[in-house]
Write the C-alpha cells for this entry.
Amino acid sequence: MNTTARLPGFDALQTRDHAAALASAGGDAALAAELLQTLLAGLPAEIEDLRACLAESDWPGLAEYAHQIRGATRYCGVPALDAAMDALERAARLGDPLRCAAGFDDVAAQAQRLRETCD
C-alpha cells in the first residue's frame, strides 16, 4: 500500500476548460485547438524527461522542467494537469523524493486522462 501523502482532488478538477482555453487564445478557437494539439503531441516526451529527472534525483531540474511545462498547461485550459504539474513543481522545489514520486504519478495520470478525453 502506498502511504505517500498526496494532494487530493486532481480527478475532481476538469480535464479541459474550453472557456479558459478560448480566453487564453484571445477568442481564437483555431489557435486554442492548435495549442492543445501541440501540448498533446509533446506530452509523451515531456513525461519521459520528467521521469528522467526523477530517476536522477535532479530536484532543481525537475522543478524547472515542470515549471516550463506549466506555461503550456496554463494556456491550454487543462486544469487537472496544470494542478498536478504545479504540485510536482512544488515538491521538487522542496527536494522531497516521496512527494516528487507521488507528484510524478499524478502528472502521468492526469496526462493520460487528458489524452483519453481528447481522443
